[in-house]
Structures are given as structure tokens and as C-alpha cells.
TrEMBL record:
Record EC number: 3.5.1.24
Pfam families per UniProt: CBAH (PF02275)
Keyword Hydrolase: yes
Name assigned to this protein: choloylglycine hydrolase
Pathway: Lipid metabolism; bile acid biosynthesis
Known catalytic reactions: cholate + taurine = taurocholate + H2O; taurodeoxycholate + H2O = deoxycholate + taurine
Gene3D superfamilies: Penicillin V Acylase, Chain A (3.60.60.10)
The entry's keywords: Hydrolase, Lipid metabolism
Keyword Transport listed: no
PANTHER family listed in its UniProt record: CHOLOYLGLYCINE HYDROLASE, HYDROLASE
GO molecular function, one term: hydrolase activity
InterPro entries for the chain: CBAH, CBAH/NAAA_C, Ntn_hydrolases_N, Peptidase_C59
Domain spans labelled Choloylglycine hydrolase/NAAA C-terminal: 2-313
Length: 325
């Protein structure tokens, strides 16, 4: 289970929480412009936009969970078990394996509009990366530095590309149903509510934050969708980069999953393994992990983006405590 958000504060910030019960050996991976990208059913790309994001590398291929490109486009794949449906390879279609969609979009799109164009006549093909690594059931959020975003879902009805007016994505149900559910919380507010029940009667308000009393607080994906949308829509704009990325991580932290609260098997719990956020204009990739609250950063533009080999950074997962005495 995961949560992804696009947040505008002068620049736009895009990233996600990755919630699983086990770490997969992810690292920060930069795919430079001249590294050859091979696709199973599509033409090879020998030159493309540079990409940075969180991935695992297998057979020198970056399997991105999420990432951004040098043009300010970001994409994240989130669990969509149940509704997700991939199809056999179809003649006359752009057949894209699910594990290829992140590099396919980021290698070529400089905006959400261009990402939509790339998805025209596309088919998310039921192709496994290998015998041991089967296609994960996913849907995707794509965003750009203007703040525009779309949701991409492949179901039994086919490939659906939805405009995403809230800039948030979690997991099930299908995206249109998430928006319908969001309408149940239209009256939630950071301010105290108006007394429309008995307007001529003075009723005591026994707590601060009373306007948000009916926000859902569960770990489930519908609850996280609502909570993340509320936190994002009311997040302040900072005065500088540090304040803005700090605000961004606080948005993600509002739906963080702590160990011990979401049991997915006997004595096995899902938790937020990492959170990341990128400045889509500057190409800086920020992240923090469950075990390390410090915000770490990798600036893609400080690397040789014209090279032909992957550039990787191991995750900094050791907690740092600054002692003041």
C-alpha cells in the first residue's frame, strides 16, 4: 500500500510513501541520457531524458518504483491488486510491460500532456520481468512541474487515463471511486465548523481542530486518500527550498504507516519503508526512511547525465541523532 502526492509551493514537489512489509533492496538510481533502454515490444531508445528515482537494479535494468526526469515529469507506481488487469500483447498497439512504464514515460515526456500522447493506443502487456519476478499489479500517477497530474489504470475495461484534480493517489478502489468517496468529506476544514445544527444555540467546542473531527484515520487506502488530500490542500507554502521540502514530507507523514499497526500476515506488518519527494524544476531527489528521519538528497544535475551507465547511491538508512550536550 502506498501514497503519492504532487504539492505546489512555487516549485512543484512530487514523490511517495512506499508501504510494504519487507524492504526490496532499493537504492537511488540515475539513468543517464545515453544509457540504452531496451523494451520488450517497443523500439530501443539510445538517447533520452535523464531519470532519477528509487529503484532496484536487475540485469543492469532499473526497475523504478518512482522517479522524475530532467524535464520536470514524475511518475510513481502504486499497488492496485484486484482491479489491475494486464492484457496479452496486441498487434497494432504500443505494448508496454508494467515494469517498463516508468522509464517509458520519463525517457520521452516533458509534460503530462506528452505523457498522455505516449499512452495513446497503448496496452499494458502481461509480461513478467523474469521467471522469478512477476508483473506487479499497479496503477500510476504522472505529474509535471506545472502541477498537472493524471492517473493511469489498466483494468478489464482497458487502459484508462484520468485527469487527477487532487494530485493524490493511493491504492484501491479505482480512481473515479476514490473521487466519489472524497465528496463525503467536503465539509472537513482546518477551521472550527459553523453551528448549522442549532444556529440560535451557543454550543461548546471542547477541542481545537474540531473542523477535522470527521477525517478518517485508518491505514486503508480510502482513508489515506482523504487524509493526504486534506493535508496537501492545506499545506503552507514555505519561504525557501528547505521549508518547502520539509512541508512536503509532513504531508506524506500524515499518512505514514508505523510498524505494528497494519498486520498483513502472522506477526508480519506493513510499514512505510521510505518516503521520497523531488523538486521537479531543480531535479533534486530527496528521501527519508523508516529508520532514518534525516532528509537525504541527490542532485541529478551534479552527475554526468551524458554517460552510458547507471549511477547508483545506496540508501542512507542509519538514524542520525544530533546531540546538543
Amino acid at each position: 500500500m502506498c501514497t503519492s502526492v504532487i504539492y505546489q509551493a512555487g516549485d512543484s514537489y512530487f514523490g511517495r510513501n512506499l508501504d510494504l512489509e519487507v524492504s526490496l533492496g532499493q537504492q537511488v538510481v540515475i539513468t543517464p541520457r545515453d544509457m540504452v533502454l531496451n523494451f520488450r515490444e517497443l523500439p530501443t531508445l539510445e538517447h533520452h531524458y535523464a531519470i532519477i528515482g528509487m529503484a532496484i537494479v536487475r540485469d543492469n535494468y532499473p526497475l523504478y518504483f518512482d522517479g522524475i526526469n530532467e524535464k520536470g515529469v514524475g511518475i510513481a507506481g502504486l499497488n492496485f491488486d484486484g482491479p489491475a488487469h494486464y492484457f496479452p500483447v496486441q498487434e497494432g498497439k504500443k505494448n508496454i510491460a508494467s515494469f517498463e512504464l516508468v522509464p517509458y514515460i520519463l525517457a520521452q515526456a516533458s509534460s503530462v500532456a506528452e505523457a498522455k500522447e505516449l499512452l495513446t493506443n497503448a496496452n499494458i502487456a502481461n509480461i513478467n520481468f523474469s521467471e522469478k519476478m512477476h508483473a506487479a499489479p499497479l496503477h500510476w500517477i504522472v505529474a509535471d512541474k506545472t502541477g498537472a497530474s493524471i492517473t493511469v489504470e489498466s483494468t478489464t475495461a482497458g487502459l484508462n487515463v484520468y485527469d487527477n484534480p487532487v494530485g493524490v493517489l493511493t491504492n484501491n478502489p479505482q480512481f473515479p471511486d476514490q473521487l466519489v468517496n472524497l465528496s463525503n468529506y467536503q465539509s472537513v476544514s482546518p477551521a472550527d465548523p459553523q453551528n448549522t445544527l442549532a444556529p440560535d444555540t451557543t454550543l461548546p467546542v471542547y477541542s481545537r481542530g474540531f473542523g477535522s473531527r470527521f477525517l478518517p484515520g485508518g491505514m486503508d487506502s480510502e482513508s489515506r486518500f482523504v487524509k493526504a488530500a486534506f493535508a496537501k490542500m492545506h499545506a503552507p507554502v514555505g519561504n525557501n527550498e528547505v521549508e518547502n521540502i520539509t512541508n512536503y514530507f509532513h504531508i506524506l507523514q500524515s499518512v505514514e504507516q508505523q510498524k505494528g499497526l497494519d498486520e498483513v500476515g502472522p506477526n508480519t506488518y506493513e510499514y512505510t519503508i521510505y518516503s521520497d519527494g523531488s523538486n521537479l524544476s531543480k531535479g533534486i531527489f530527496y528521501y527519508r526512511t523508516y529508520d532514518n528521519n534525516q532528509i537525504n538528497a541527490v542532485d541529478m544535475h551534479k552527475e554526468n547525465l551524458a554517460s552510458t551507465t547507471l549511477i547508483t547511491y545506496p540508501i542512507n538508512d542509519q538514524q542520525k541523532i544530533e546531540y546538543q550536550n
